[in-house]
Amino acid sequence: MTEYKLVIVGGGGVGKSALTIQLIQNHFIDEYDPTIEDSYRKQVTIDDETCLLDVLDTAGQEEYSAMRDSYMRTGQGFLCTYAITSRSSFDEITAFREQILRVKDCDQVPMVLVGNKCDLEDERQVSANEALVLAKSFGCPIYETSAKARINVEAAFYQLVRQIRREQNKRCPSICKKKKK
Questions:
Q1: DSSP state, 106?
Q2: Which of 65, 74, 116, 167 would you call most buried, defined as having the most Cβ atoms within 10 angstroms of its Cβ?
Q3: Across the chain, which distance is largest between two alpha carbons, in Å?
Q4: What is the mean pLDDT of residues 86-114?
Q5: C-alpha angle with apex 94: 89 to 100, nearest 5 degrees?
């Protein structure tokens, strides 16, 4: 059975743990307890292939940024997550992506941009259009999700697996396109 190492990154409080637990355990966690690092596994079937998702839920807080290099090195695909209710979390996304590309020494890596908390439309600070523009500049898909309302949670994670498969099918020796020297 194929195993996929997925890493969910983003600023503090954007809902990384809530999305992960909604995917793995099918329930919403209401209380906020900052994560240092948690790993979850779940067997799923995506496009008729049974596979094992190994999801690493990471710390958004800056004080844990030193840990990022190690999990970025081992991850095959990344969910870059912001909250649609937080302009600052959206502004941080480019830095997360740049760090991933630097650590993996590539120009491109399987990635999905995730705008979480889409159930809080009245509190929106990031328009769907500007997120779409950012996703296009990254060359990756975007999903607006809600861990609370269970909107697009599976879709975002499953799309990331499809991105990884696409990259692997290109017969690339590693999971990323190496930088041109």
A1: E
A2: 116
A3: 47
A4: 95
A5: 115
Whether the CB-CB separation of 143 and 114 falls below 8 Å is answered with yes
- Name the one residue in this structure whose structure tokens are 């355990």: 25
Domains and CATH numbers, the chain: 2-178 (3.40.50.300)
Distance CA 123, CA 53 (A): 32
Distance CA 113, CA 143 (A): 6
Cβ-in-10-Å burial (0-12, 13-18, 19+) of 120 comes to middle
Nearest to 113 by CA among 95, 136, 129: 136
Taking only the tens place, the pLDDT of each residue in 3-51 is: 999 999 999 999 999 999 999 999 898 776 766 668 899 999 999 999 9
Which percentage of the chain shows pLDDT scores above 70? Answer: 87
Query: Among candidates 26, 180, 15, which has minimal Cα distance to 84?
Result: 15
Which tokens sit at 120?
């809080």
pTM for the whole thing?
0.90
Average pLDDT, the chain: 90
